[in-house]
Write a structure and sequence with these properties.
four-stranded parallel sheet, five-stranded mixed sheet, elongated, 243 residues
Length: 243
């Protein structure tokens, strides 16, 4: 185990074949203990030398730990110099429940800093509580993450504690940045399902084709009224939300 990490981070160093007892005696109890205090966990896994695999029992424990806690893993950093593992992470990282990245051993400090980071949302969030309009500005070059949707959900949730509805949401981004992972996509869908009946209007201010898609496809499916505006029509969109 790697000591000295924040409470939300599980750190392990692997230098031999993984055994079932490694999970039973160390990893699973540690994860369960941390989840009593943390909603989500991050993983820092350092593999020294070549990957030596795992015993049959360890495979089951690995599946049990991963699938059983699938919604509780946020960031996972794998530190190794194994080329095939790096390629596998690049190939399958998109399908990870959280955000998965590979780091070379000489970039250990960057891996540790990444999983230990606290302020993670990369989306601008501004709520005008007086008029009940929330402005979201995703960065065009940074894909949306689960952290972004959690941060937005918290702002809306806090507002709805004292208000029946949010008057409108303005999403302002020149192009749609996409999702970091399947987990981020599911977080997006969950977010929409949770709040769409608590929002009056949604203005998509963008030049992205995704805005046109949402305008024509999502509008009939949601209780909130959805309308697309060109990227330079932010003022018109704000007037429409407040009308």
């Amino acid at each position: 185990m790697i000591e000295g990490l924040p409470d939300h981070v599980v750190g392990i160093r692997i230098n031999d074949k993984l055994r079932a007892e490694d999970y039973e005696r160390q990893l699973i109890p540690l994860v369960n203990d941390k989840l009593e205090r943390q909603h989500k966990l991050d993983l820092l896994c350092c593999i020294e030398g070549e990957w030596k695999g795992m015993e049959a029992g360890a495979v089951w424990q690995d599946l049990r730990l991963g699938l059983g806690k699938i919604g509780h893993w946020a960031r996972m950093a794998i530190v190794s110099d194994i080329k095939w593992l790096e390629n596998a992470i690049k190939l399958f990282g998109l399908f990870s429940p959280g955000e998965l990245r590979h780091f070379d051993s000489n970039n250990y400090a960057a891996a540790e800093a990444w999983v230990c980071e606290r302020e993670r949302e990369r989306i601008g969030i501004a709520l005008d509580a007086g008029v009940g309009v929330l402005v979201l500005e995703p960065a065009a070059d940074q894909a949306l993450s689960e952290d972004d949707f959690e941060a937005v959900g918290k702002v809306i949730g806090d507002y709805l504690k004292d208000h029946a509805r949010l008057r409108g949401v303005l999403i302002h981004s020149r192009k749609f940045p996409g999702w970091q992972s399947v987990g981020a996509l599911f977080a997006h869908l969950k977010f929409v399902n949770t709040v769409h009946d608590k929002i009056g209007k949604i203005a998509l201010v963008t030049d992205s084709p995704m805005g046109t898609f949402a305008d024509h496809v999502l509008d009939p499916l949601m209780l909130a009224k959805v309308r697309k505006f060109d990227y330079g029509e932010r003022d018109q969109a704000m007037s429409w939300l407040q009308d």
